[in-house]
Amino acid sequence: MIYEVEQKFPVADPSQLERRLAELGAVLHEPVLQVDRYYRHPARDFAHTDEALRIRRIGPQNFVTYKGPKIDAATKTRREIELPLAPGEAGFAGFASLLEALGFQPAAEVRKHRRKAHIDWEGSCVEAALDQVEQVGSFAELELAVAEAEVPRAKACLASLAARLGLEGSERRSYLELLLQKSDAA
Predict the structure, then answer these.
(1) Each residue of 21-57: b (16+ CB within 10 Å) or e?
(2) Does 175 qualify as catalytic in the annotation?
(3) pLDDT, tens digit, for every residue of 87-120?
(4) Residue 6 and residue 76 in contact, taking contact as beta carbons nearer than 8 Å
(5) Residue 144 confidence (pLDDT)
(6) How many of the other CB atoms lie within 10 Å of CB of 20?
(7) What is the Cα–Cα distance from 47 to 45, expressed in whole angstroms?
(8) Catalytic annotation, pick one of 38, 39, 66, 175
(9) Which fold is adopted by the domain 2-185?
(10) Residues 118/127, Cβ–Cβ less than 8 Å
(11) pTM of the prediction?
């Protein structure tokens, strides 16, 4: 079973983080728009069970992703299953129709402009992302996908890299949670 080990941090000065990433040899790719449509389960409350189901669109590519409950209090470590869908608008709309026919209802849509890079750190290839999330703000994410036995090592690796990059104030809430809380406060 593969686990996504992730840490996310608010970023006040994205250009400063870009410089720190460059110092480590990371090359940030051009921004890509990611559109994530999240769904409510017809029989259980994902907010209560700490799960998520989404369809993600990146250009013409589409993916369906299930995220299980977080397994610790410090990071966003959780089981993740992601599968490719048919490409294009028809693939996105078709799978959305299937979910809705099964009783799943759209909860919200998160739109973010993401710049990715990879960093070799402590023997791992860490995926770093600099995100500008519409209506939420700027964040950095550090992520590794590992087998269950490797989770403790991956968490230590990400914590070490975050410290080196000067990232503080780890945020465990998802972009969906942050967006919904902001909407509720408005």
Answers:
(1) beeeebebeeeeebbbbbbbbeeeebeeeebbbbbbb
(2) no
(3) 999 999 999 999 999 999 999 999 999 999 999 9
(4) yes
(5) 98
(6) 14
(7) 5
(8) 38
(9) Hypothetical Protein Pfu-838710-001 (2.40.320)
(10) yes
(11) 0.92
